[in-house]
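Technical note accompanying the year-one report. For the benefit of new consortium partners, we illustrate the data format agreed upon in the data management plan: each record pairs a sequence with a structure-token string. No post-processing was applied to the example shown here.
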Amino acid sequence: MSTTPNPDEVTAELALNRALRWIDRPRDTSAWLWIGGRAGSGRTALLREVVARHPTAAHVDCAGRSAEEVARAVARALGLSATDSFKGNFAAMAGRVSDDPVVVLANTQWAGVLRTSREPERVLDLVARALIEHHRRGLRMRLLVEVDDAPGKAAELGGRHLTLQGGFEGMPAPVELDEDAALSAALRGLAMAEHRFVPMAVWALLCSAVGQDVPESQLESLLGVAVARGWIHRSDDGAGTTLVSFEQEAMARRLRTEMPAEDARSCHARAVTALSAADASEATRWYVGRALAGHAAAAGRFDAFVEDTAAVARVGHESLFEAFEAAFHGVPIAQGSAGARLHYLVRRGVQPASQGEWLALLHLTLMQAGPTEEAAAERLLTAAGPVAALPWRTLWAEGVGAGAFSTDALVRRPIVRTLRIVHTPAGDVVTARTRRDHIGTWDLVTGTPRPEPGESAEVPDTTQADQGPQGWRPAGAAAGDVDLPRMPEYIRRGVRSGRHIALASTDGVCVVEIDQSAVQQTSADLLKRLVGTSTELAPAVVPHAALAPTVEWLTTVWGSAAVSRYPQETLPAALSDPGAREFLSTVGFPCVTGFLELDTTGLADTGLRPVAGLVDKPDEAESTYFFLGTWQGARLLLDGRDGSVLQDGSSGLDDALAGSSVGQFVAMVRLYYWWFASDWSVEDTETDVRRWLNLIDPSAFQTQGWQRVFEDYNFDDRV
């Protein structure tokens, strides 16, 4: 690598002097300084010297840490209680900084545990930027951040920057590698690793993945050459397994960038296949836990990888979430997929402290996803057995998990106000109620529905708890300790009886069973995140039933009595449109009210009757318009000539069109009602519903009538 200085580069000594003078400059308010330069130019040493001159500085080495871990470390260094409340993310923490601190973030370019990673960018975007943008007005903070200069990164970030001269020498040139095909394959294979440290058996596997088989015996001899030339470092895992790594991590980065992107994806795909073998050695399993998720992300196969719950159980949660952020950066996640479940877990603040806690949370999510994921949940438990002990295990779950819904039925998530465990002659049961109504009663262990117990039913010795901003507290108390494992914020109530805990969340009700020996190993702080996710869900696919409505699709939300069908022989002859005649006779029309300021209930009694036409278009001698009901203060009419649904113009809206066909109008009303009448927690389905309506009938959706239906202030039945 060339070490010829650029005009903007300075020596390490000059950079240190400038940085120290800048820190002590009294007239500046809060400011920041990016420290750039090539690998080996002395950036980290410069920052260590700054900290030595300012011993009270908040100094965090970001190498090997996720953005979340960096945020927590910064908060601790600044003396802030970051995880004592569910309220507030890292941006809120930044607003609590005081005492005019010096904050030093070193090695941001090496953040994360994977080589396919966005953690360096996330540290800059979610931690450094949060300190810059959210500190208190009048605060005099000095923020120094080491960044990768590849080249000119420091200058691109904006604000003050210092770029150091020099850098590592001794990188092997491509021509030097090409002289020895085996050595070239060995170094390129090691560079393709997703973890910095690689067991010998995995090194051989990675060589095969890049296209050349190099046996372990040959790698041993090549290792001597590479170590002698200062290219590779040899160590062990503490248990006798040899690990190899580059002396300079920058060398791995350079070798990776030299490989064409498509070739690299193919190599990572072959690595995923080889590493997933059932007969993997202990050394390979060690590497799999730390790197397999990264290979899946680099191969462009992460979405398929996370669908395999047994594979997911074998990888550490730290590398899994890091690979998740890398795999779906700028790539929307398909709704209803395993990737979407991870997205919701991150949005809900899940930050596990151990592999056992992570697998317990993932198992809970699978159980909440409904019957379609029961097999996946069982596979997860089987795979988790040799990996980690779960502090608790979900026995059953009732309700609708985040993203686990379809338009085939209304989404019901009643708010649980009372949760009890009681004795009955048939065994212990869990019963849940809203403020007024009974939600359900289930067998404590199996989840089988049971009759609601009477008020006099015997209540065993239980621990009742609510979860608030500071976590669990005794039910009805402002504070206090309870013997329940930590849970995500969306779980609001808990009742413990022995080793069983009934939980009520914004999704529904579930029961978990405690493993007392494992639960003692879990963290004591809140289950929350300080930094969020940049991933986004893809737009939901238009439901097939909305493009071709059926009787069943209508009656699942309205009931059979609300849908009227009209045999062909009963339809008026003036209704000449064949599509309308077919739809009304085979599917029918909903006779409903209570939403959209729509009332078609009278149609059930009167049937289709001809009426005068539009206000501004006097009807012909024989009417071709049929009364359907009222909508937004106007008559709703079916035009028998073309099957369109119209407002008669009496409401003052300029656009008459309500539906280009009766089928399209019914589909739009059905989708709107499904969204309006359902209970939502974290999903934002309004955007999808709007898009669906536009796809179903773009001409009608652009009219005033449909454009205003999402505005609460316009509709009495939406407030």
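Partners are asked to follow this layout when depositing records. The longest helix spans residues 282-298.
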